[in-house]
Amino acid sequence: MWGSVPKKCIDTDNVPLQIRQENCLHCGNCVTACPVGAVKNE
Q1: pLDDT computed for residue 16 by the predictor
Q2: Residue 13 DSSP class
Q3: Which of 4, 8, 24, 29 has the most CB atoms in a 10 Å sphere around its CB?
Q4: Distance of CA 7 to CAs 1, 2, 13, 34, Å?
């Protein structure tokens, strides 16, 4: 599911998962990978 998102960009230690803004590459892969549509590209 999150395979297309660089691992350093997603904090999987917390629920819900969080995007690490300091590591975000602005690639947009998380938007399409999120199974519930919780990530928005703004």
Answers
A1: 87
A2: T
A3: 29
A4: 12, 8, 12, 14
* pLDDT tens-digit map of 24-36: 888 888 888 888 9
Give the three-class secondary structure for 5: coil
Largest Cα–Cα separation, the chain: 25
Both tokens assigned to 35 = 């199974």
Task: Indicate the pTM of the whole model.
Answer: 0.69
Residue 9 has pLDDT above 80, yes or no: yes
Please give the helix or strand (H or E) that residue 10 lies within, else none.
strand 10-11
